[in-house]
Amino acid sequence: MPYENGISLRNLVSDYAGGAMHILIIEDDENAAQYMAKGLTESGHVVDVASNGRDGLFMATGGDYDALIVDRMLPHLDGLAVIQALRAADIATPVLILSALGEVDDRVKGLRAGGDDYLTKPFAFSELIARLDAIVRRHNAGRVETTLKVGDLELDLLSRQVRRAGRAIELQPREFRLLEYMMRHADQVVTRTMLLEGVWDYHFDPQTNVIDVHISRLRQKIEKGFDKPLLHTVRGAGYVLRDTP
Amino acid sequence: MTTTSSGFRAFRTSTFRIVFRYAAIVGIFLTLVLGLVYWWALAVIDQGVRQTIEAEIRGLAEQYRTEGLERLIEVVSERSRRQPTDNSVYLLVAPDGRRLAGNLANWPDDAVVSVDGDKTWFNITLKKKEDGALVPHSIQARTFQLPGGFRLLVGHDTQGITDFRNIIIGVLAWAAVATLALAVLGGLLISRNLLRRVENVSATSRDIIRGDLGRRVQTDGSGDEFDRLARSINEMLDQIQHLMTGMRAVTDSLGHDLLSPLSRLRSRAELAFRNAPMDAPERETLELTIADADAILATFRSLMRIAQAESGLSRAEMVAVDLTTIADEVAELYQPVAEDKGLHFDKRLEPGCRIRAHEQLLAQAIANLLDNAVKYTPENGRVWLAVRREERAVVCEIADSGPGIPAEDREPVFERFTRLEHSRTTPGNGLGLSLVAAVAMLHGAAIELADNQPGLKVTLRFPPDQAAG
After folding, report:
1. Are residues A25 and A107 in the same domain?
2. How close are the terminal C-alpha atoms of chain B, in Å?
3. What is the pLDDT of residues A111-126, one digit of tens each?
4. Which residues does chain A have within 8 Å of residue B262's beta carbon, measured at their own beta carbons?
5. Domains in chain A: how many in total?
6. How far is the C-alpha of B89 from the C-alpha of B341, rounded, in Å?
7. CATH topology of domain B313-462
8. Is residue A3 part of a domain?
9. What global pTM score does this model have?
10. Which residues of B touch A200 (CB under 8 A)?
11. How many cross-chain Cβ pairs, A to B, lie less than 8 Å apart?
12. Measured between CB atoms, does B3 come within 8 Å of chain A?
């Protein structure tokens, strides 16, 4: 696999040190909660855990959290009910919903209840971090952009044109959407599953890693003739678009 | 369902055949009985006529013997004058053939002779004046030789019997026609009634086959055989559903019990990997462990997807979609992969082919088929994707110029975990085509594997979206 411009997840995690988040995990599975808490703490975040829906709702309402991780099935108060109660109380904290495997069609229900993203258990830790990061940034950005910029790469959402260092780059419609997604999540690790969901709207894993081929084509177009690489492969996680100094 | 076609279908039911056969048997039996009655009645009447004639001849012979020729002529003339109210015919001739008395003009010589024991009977046809016209009448007669050379003929007009016979034949013919007509009509009516009740069961069965296990056959509470059948079927379905729910609970908890530790194993390995120093020797082991865990999880996910499609639970999410667009998007996902492998990708997509579908599952099925096509076709080969409308179906066809699948292996490839000999070396878990089969079933689509000469051609025939026409 081409890892020539790959960077390790370890480097990436250290980037969060500056932006430590306060995260509440509402999860009744003690083991799962513990592993998530451990991993997130090691990534430099501050983590609280609630083991049932009632406590979770109470803590989420009172505490000042940057993000919530809410399990779909909870004792006392169902995960979706917790989110609905929060949204009804005008608390807009971004929520990542966790659900057991096999409840594929629950996604829509989860998002409709006010969740920001949906993750099926079991998941890779890198997937959890990437998605958490994505919903928090989206929540904080909060403004409508017409131009996206990463280093000398510019993407105009209105004229649908891409330029790098002033030179126009021709992209197919899907490549444009792929680049747009990467640029909206600049400096964040984006997983293959996130790309399939966000760019293609496919909620399944293709048997072959088709995403890699699309990424390498896009990389060809935006990096050919330029010295500095922008689209990096993060080993074992996904990709990141960033202007490395 | 229109009246004509259901009426037409009533002809093809077993009930109709049974009723029709029954009517045929009754008809034959009826004909036999009536025929017997007919022959018997005719014989009795015939016998009566002969006895009357015999008695008359005996009487007349007695007259002749005791009172002589004069008296006989007198009696015969007197009896002849009773005409035409009586149907008797008399003739007495002298030895030289001269007519002495009677209502017959001359001795008949065209008489048909039949012998009954020692007696000779004639059947003669006479022309009788009726309303000014001569009408042929058949007469049964007997002659008697009197002593002295005189001959006596006594006969009886059997025209009434002939008329009677004709009437009976007519009645029999009409009865046969009426029986046949009633049989067809009755068969149709009974069949249609039964058909409606059987259709009730069939419709439910079809729904259940399509995955709607909650359906039950309607009972009407009448307690008749169909009602009892419906109740038995419903009890059976309850039992099946109960077993399946139990099975699902077992599978789910098994899945949960396996997934939780597997998921913890993966998390642990991932955390260890993340915390290990860059040059630590265990990094590679951990990475391989994570990869294996991911492969197992991917298989789990595929199995869950197949189960989801097979259970029919996703039916609620089926909407009218444009198959052309869905296929085109999946093709676009795979086109770069095909091009990188030097494959020629040939798309023939007829626009606007609409079907009812679960979009994600349908896309995944097409993706799995394209994945296989691209994976198994050697470099510089060809891959085809076609969507088109046929008379009664919307067709999605994926073909390649790869090694294909031998005819005897085509059925098993839809089974879970089937991997053919030449595919052992390529990545995959043997679930791709199982999912395609499950998705096809969910959509009521027919699936066909054929030889593309060379290569494999997979054809999915979807029922077109009714609303879109």
Report:
1. yes
2. 17
3. 888 889 888 877 888 8
4. 122
5. 2
6. 115
7. Heat Shock Protein 90 (3.30.565)
8. no
9. 0.62
10. 329, 333
11. 104
12. no
